Amino acid sequence: MTTAACAVTLALVPAHHTVAASARTPDKQPVAIGTGGAVASLDPYATESGLEILRAGGNAVDAAVAVAATLGVVRPYDGSIGGGGFMVLRDGSTGKITTINSRETAGSQVTPEHFLDPATGEPLSFTEARRSGLSVGVPGTVAGWQLALGKYGTMNLAEVMDPATMIAKRGFVVDAEYQARTQDNFSYLNAFTSSQDTWLIDGAAPKEGTVFRNPDIARTYELIARDGADAFYKGPLAKAIADAVTNPPVSGTSPTEVRPGKMTTEDLASYRATELAPTHSDYNGYDIYGMAGPSSGGTTVGEILNILEPTDLSGLSEEEILHKIIEASALAFADREAYLGDPDYESVPYKGLISDEYAAERQALITDAASAKPVASGNPWPYDGGAGVGLDLAANSPAGGQTTHLTVADNQGNIVSYTFTIEGIAGSGITVPGYGFLLNNELTDFSFDPKHPANAPAGGKRSRSSMSPTIVLKDGEPYVALGTPGGSRIITTVLQLLVNHLELGMPLPEAIAAPRISQRNTTSTELEPPLYNSPTVDALRARGQKVSQNVVMNNATGVSFLPDGTMLAAAEPERYHGGAAGVVRPTGAQY
Ligand code: GLU
């Protein structure tokens, strides 16, 4: 980008921020059934952008990037070009399932002691680590979009980013969720002058019902549309990112010390998104494809399903089902903690972890009584075939309530299940000055303990993720695609969605709406209120299960493929003020 080009573009962009609402908010519904393609996301503007691209002849990959780019405008605290993510996609022309890894990398100068306070040698608090340059990884989202579009899309970045750019310029109507998210993360946004300038109106959250514009992100999108990913990873924008990380634009209001991070323009220039083989597990006749690489999602969901598979859950009571899920989840999370990290840096026993033989060994540990948690990890290596990294990851081309999941399908059999994030809500809190987007705090997903066997920080390494975008086939045909945000609760929610839908026969909207639980090898299992306040909890306690209440867990979306050939897009009906489902041609059918 030249300075002159930037100035011209800026002049065309309307002045910043809010006016009384006059713009139309797109319709928002949690379920849509029809043909021609389907989109589910957590925001109606984003879903509308995806439908617009599908109607214009784009495929599911094109539409998914359009949805994601729009989320970066209307839900900028959840996922954006300042972060990274994972996309599982089905190529309709070949039936092949593949994945795109756009996880952030640590700067080349990061060491295992990255999160230790140099003065004390002790780990920093999570909050202090997060609200700093230390937490920021090299963003991968733009490289991931370019890779996905180049190999599997039909449109270019300029075409698919256009709807989002127009929304950023014209503005969108702030809803209650947006206002609440800004308020809830005020201390992060207020800590940096660039974030105050970009996200706050007169020092406060934009109010519900007003129109919010972000001309800075519109200009940034136009740069990327014009020059491709190079506009992000090289030149003035890359320099602005590295500067913001190494010299955060502090406002002086942070309640904790804001430490500088480690990132160079070379780290940005050398970033590559990669294409990886998916994880695959066979569960009662369904083929489940998930995310490998630095995500623990596909492996851990697969291991839990394998442990559960020999049990006919549909014949059990709700309490018995939950007991089995709790016990299987604790066992798989113990293995996740012991073995899963970035396979480019650590040997990961992928084959062992999702082998039926290893699952049988783990399943034999489950009794009618609750185990004492945390439980110990097992040893999957004997089931790994001695391969070290069991999936053929190396053979894949290095081509080059936070977080958000979108699911898109078209009428050509292409499917995208895509989770992306800037980690915490509002990430590190640092906005790249003048460019309109927040930088992630993804490096706090590393273990702060430099001796952690699989997930200690290192230069260039990717921190372990829980993101679990998933595609399920039955008899080789698309059955359902889904995912969710929610930190490590992502894994337990995806697991529960799959059990509800595949095993217990709930239609996808019911599977999403059902109350959730989460057991991650911690003493207590979290339950949402409808379960926590039900008699089921007494029976769980009678077995020795410890339980606690978690008010709301995660914001899932999915698309299921109905027997009559129509598609059903589904989003949350209530959690986090609900999501938005849409189809190209509604049939008016009920599920
Ligand atoms: N950083 C998290 C992960 O990669 C995602 C953030 C979230 O959903 O909380 O697993």
Describe what this molecule looks like in 3D.
By secondary structure, the protein is α+β, with helices and mostly antiparallel strands. The protein has a domain at 310-398 and 479-586: Gamma-glutamyltranspeptidase, large (L) subunit, C-terminal domain (Serum Albumin, Chain A, Domain 1, Orthogonal Bundle). The protein has 21 helices and 19 strands. Helix 15 (318-339) crosses helix 21 (536-542). The longest helix has 22 residues, at 318-339. The structure holds glutamic acid. Glutamic acid is lined by residues 402-403, 421, 423, 442, 445, 465-467, 485-487, 490.
Q: CATH H-level name of the domain at 310-398 and 479-586... which superfamily?
A: Gamma-glutamyltranspeptidase, large (L) subunit, C-terminal domain
Number of helices: 21
Provide the CATH architecture of the domain at 310-398 and 479-586.
Orthogonal Bundle
Small molecules bound in the structure, each named once:
glutamic acid
Beta-strand residue fraction: 15-25%
Q: Structural class of the secondary structure composition?
A: alpha+beta
Could you tell me the number of beta strands? 19
Ends apart, CA distance between termini: 50 Å
Q: Strand count, sense and closure of the main sheet? A: 13 strands, antiparallel
Mean pLDDT over the full residue set: 92
